[in-house]
Amino acid sequence: MFKDKDDFIAAYKTAFVEESGNAFEDSDMERRYYILVNMIRERLSQDWLKSRERFRENGHKQVFYFSMEFLMGKLLVDYLLGLGLYDTVAEGLAELGLDLQELAAYESDAGLGNGGLGRLAACFLDSMAYLGIPGNGNGIRYRYGFFKQKIIDGFQAEMPDNWLINGYPWEIRKPEKSVIVRYKGTVKEKWVDGHLTVVHEGYEPVRAVPYDVPVIGFGGKTINNLRLWSAEPVNEVFDLSSFNRGELSLAIRSRSEVEAISYILYPEDSSPAGRELRLKQEYFFVAAGIQNIVSTFIKRGGDLAHFSRKIAIHINDTHPALAIPELMRVLMDENGVPWNRAWETTVQTMSYTNHTIPAGAGKMGRSLFRPPAAADLPNRAGNRPPLPGGTGHPRRRWGERYRDPAPRFRLDGEPRRYRQPFRQWRRQTAHRDLKNTVLKDFYRIFPDRFSNKTNGVSHRRFLLKANPKLSALIGRTIGEGWLYRPQDLIKLKDRAGDAIFLTELAAVKYENKCRLARHIFERTGTTVDPNSIFDVHIKRIHAYKRQLLNVLKIMALYDAVKENPDALARPLTFLFAGKAASGYHYAKTIIKLINTVAEQINGDAAIDGRLKVVFLEDFNVSASEIICPATDISEQISTASKEASGTGNMKFMFNGAVTLGTMDGANVEIHDIVGPENMFAFGLSAQEVLHLYRHGGYCSWDLYHSDPLLRTIVDHLIDGSLPGDRSQFCAVYDDLLRDNDPFFTLKDFHSYLDAWKRAAAAYEDREKWQRISLYNIAAAGYFSSDRTIKEYADEIWHTPYTNNGTPER
């Protein structure tokens, strides 16, 4: 792309004149950022086209990944690394008196996701592109993202995240590829020669306009596509009379109602209007994506009889579940495919990953949703489709393994609700416990359709980009092969006895802790000691993720230090970050509790800074890239059986943090791979938790009364020990005692505190701790998303990957 830094400098200066009519010297930093991005994007556009043409010519099966979230993070540095241009551009900019990292800071974190679900989708796109799989993301272009979190008087406040205020230079609007999504109206059905004909009348049309974002595979050979849909009116009605009366909101109401569909991620759904908007969103990007896939397939001469041989559609959790009946509808109603063939095509095309255990997940109100004929038909007497391997009623084939009506698309609950349709999948990847709990009836009938997959993260994003000093140390030690084959990190184990290497590893960690300390001070005004243990808990705020358990531990440690100033071997820094859903009041109370405890501890001069508690507001990908490299102890303490996988633990692991966690989700695999001596596990097992749930839990009130330490700490919530109104945390107190501690926070407390003390003691043996950290880095290669995507490609999608862990250039 650029021969050398001089070639880049010449091209960069020319771009200013061509695009803005001004010289480089007359521009501000923001303009310099946008010119650089536009130049890189234009230079890669030919390669973007070549990737599509190569896949088309080779007839490779296309993978379409449907997700409500794509938490992409900032892309400039990531893409320069992927294209092999980082050093060239950095050196060229330095010669012009610019710092690449400072320039890259002008990029907004794209507001396309909230947490692990969205970041997983982004990592998967990254690995698909690197491996040469023709992968396409399909989601929504949220104008205001999730929300921008502000902490005001300790409480979370939600502000619009106007990340598009200055545009998004990576995207390309494609209005010519717009499709119409239809809502409401009536459906007329009639049978003609054994085929169901459906006509949709009186519907409300919405235009779905695609915006494409390049996804550059490391090495630059493959550039895939993320397509984001924006909702726009088809026939905008401007009420001039309302406008003339000064009723501006009425004048543009039709546009506002349509555009609201793609305004924000996860609109608050405690009201009927909020639930309707959520459902509209879920159908919007599903309908747009399915129409686009099918129409493009037909336009390129594809035979719908072979659709599943060339197309794989994967849905990320329950949000895009309407893709299943929608594909049936498009095949049948718009393309005349007979029901049985449409069913078989859908079963062979769709696959689904479940990340959510609660049985209530993925339900929608009956008043909001009428299932399309394609989805509802299996439930009508006499019209059930034949199930795989035989005909007739399934009970005659499977006997007692068949439980009716659980596997059907059905109404349940009160008020009556539609359960998302699960039956029409070919393969499902799921949390291991789903087979024995929520989806046990499906598993009884279709055991071959379940496949556990351990998630992964992009090691190039969260190690190479996020931690350049550690990456450089690894490269000097074992070479650059780990960038392409992350399993090569295991070679680092040979350095466990190398005192010089362990000292270098400790120096890198200290530099990263200094960087995080500066970041914390700039954003909160709180000073933290880089020599302290950095204990980090960054996750979505939720009761089952048990930020409360961590806070109770901190309160116990504070009491201990107040009683004995020598109780701690060294200073401690506890860092929290994460957002609570806007309507989740309990989680927002936990944020207030964290900040109240921080106010109390950080303001207590008597403990001389031995403890510090920090809550970093508005957590995002960019923040995680600063936090993960600096972390010593990674808090992964969700209630066992509740965390489907988790990927935060993997990002920390790549950066040498040591996991303190329950045996839940991917913690189980981490424990198995690094060994029990290199992770600090605690608490009830998933089996023990499920047993307690089945038998009514335990009596937290008895435990509270029999344990003086627990009683003292829990009483702090309501006895006036904390700053502010003594009643502000009554909901937390009630959850623990009156609601019988539904997430076993008190039950696990002592096991957790003991495990934390073992970790803190291990930290004091500096050489031992560095070896533990090294073993975690060395074993982390298994948790690369490259490995996960290879498993999907081989076992679920059945699509080849052209790059098998070797440099593409």
List low-pLDDT spans.
378-426
Largest sheet composition = 9 strands, mixed
Our Rg estimate from Cα atoms comes to 27 Å
Helix content: 40-55%
End-to-end Cα distance: 13 Å
* Strand runs, count: 22
Instruction: Classify the beta-strand content into a percent band.
Output: 5-15%
Class inferred from helices and paired strands = alpha/beta
The number of helical elements comes to 31
Mean pLDDT, all residues:
88
Oligomeric status of the shown chains? single chain
Shape by Cα distribution: globular
Summarize the structure.
The chain is of the alpha/beta class and 809 residues long. Helices cover 43% and strands 15% of the residues. It is built from 31 helices and 22 strands.
What would the keywords be for this entry?
single chain, 809 residues, alpha/beta, 9-stranded mixed beta sheet, 6-stranded parallel beta sheet, globular
